[in-house]
Amino acid sequence: MTKVTILPSRFDQELPLQIASALKAGFPSPAEDYGHASLDFNRDMIRHPEATFYGRVDGDSMVEAGINDGDIAVIDRAVEASDGDVIVAYVNNEFTIKYLDLSHRAEGYIELRPANHNYSPIRIDATDDFEVWGVVVWTIHPWRPGGRMEG
Q1: Which of 21, 24, 38, 61 is labelled catalytic?
Q2: Which residue has the higher pLDDT, 119 or 1?
Q3: 51: which residues sit within 8 A by CB, 6+ positions away?
Q4: Is 98 assigned a catalytic role?
Q5: What's the pTM?
């Protein structure tokens, strides 16, 4: 099971950001004017700072969703989870990150689905200690080896 370690969060800093009208994935135009701005997580990415936390991903059960071992998940506890959301769940004294599958609710259970064919869904019923701890709204993924943030 892929585990998540909850980390402290601080959203009161602005980070410098050089931007263009859009970040192109093709060839840049030499005629474009580049401006300077700042990236403010509160303003630009975090809707509920007081209810938002980081979690470090430990495991590979979500790799087919692009969530890898060592990534940082940005978790919003103020967002109501919906079917198909990537969530952080607290299951039987452990945090895990999975897709929420509510399609079996009428049958008396739900499932937490991995995004790795090597893992099976986790079936949750009334006997389990279960809580949707929060909804994953962003992930931060290092692109270089050794890019893992310590914390």
Answers
A1: 61
A2: 119
A3: 76, 77, 78, 134
A4: yes
A5: 0.74
